[in-house]
Batch of 2 targets.
Target 1
Amino acid sequence: MDIFLLRHAATQSNQEGRLSSGMDDPLTALGCQQAYAIVSGLLSLRLDAVFCSPLSRAVKTVEPFLEASSLPSERHPCLAEGQLVLTNDVPLVPVCYQNSSGGVPVPCSEESPGAFLQRVEHAKDLLLSQQYPRILVVTHGHMIRELLNSFLALPSKTRFPHHNCGLTHLSIGEQVTVGFINRPLIT
């Protein structure tokens, strides 16, 4: 199985240099341009399915590609953004979801680090349970970082860079291998 992790396009928080794990941070005009600019690069990956965070910045990033490809897609609240966790000694705790103003399930607004890390494990299990050989996951920087830490079973937290529309490739087999991290799709 090949899993491609894509960080969403540019948002207002990104432009202002702020880390945003908030639920609704829309794409900027640049982000909308990026969403269209990555379509040909994503088409070249010969993907079989798309899994996406329910947050609007991820959904809007992948919409032009979905229109061009007609691939099956699913939104999963476990793929929503979380928080920066810098230590391995955070105990996992149950996850809490609530409905957004649009009625879409999202993580509870006061999510603990342990609940976020539990969601990462749910996301990993979701991806590993798929029969699709090539999957695109459209999500957020903190989620990508934690998925990499989990899939690679790293002994200590590693902070991987993730630029807007940066793509990371994992091959899952007897071993997990990394093809690339944070490859730009826009040149």
Note: The mean pLDDT is 92.
Target 2
Amino acid sequence: MKQAGLLAGVGLLCSYLLSMIPGAGWVFSIVGLVLFLVGVHKISQLTGQKEIFNLFLLPVILGFVGITIASVMVIGAVMRVMMSGGFNLAAFGVATILLLIVSVVLLIISLISYVKAYRLLAQVTNMNIFNTVANLYKWGAILLVVFGVGAILMFAGVIVAMVGFFSMEEKPSAQ
């Protein structure tokens, strides 16, 4: 369990902190994502709770779906402008509104999945620190919409999650 926690913790470290390195950040982000998913998969196998992995995998899949949809919509809007021979604000406006709606829906589903995953992880490992992570994500998402400061809480949630993964014990605690 400790090794799986280390993998997940290093994955978060790479995905969030090392991904800020100019030029090479995208490599760290992808490597971190893979390490995180491998670590979480091992934790879910060791605890017998496959739902943990599924709940962490869903936001990753939705992220790729969101990026693909955004790319297609932007390319479509640009192609419409190029074919019409002039700038069409309406085409960009509709594409932007649709993209915003799709992004918000995918983000909400992803955040709900993360909160459920961390709550289940806290229950299975008997580590309350993951409940704290779930709370930071939940309140960060709410305050992101209301005040815009929720990103700080969500980033704090990532840091606390790293601490939780790095401090995992060798065997899961009795439930």
Note: The mean pLDDT is 85.
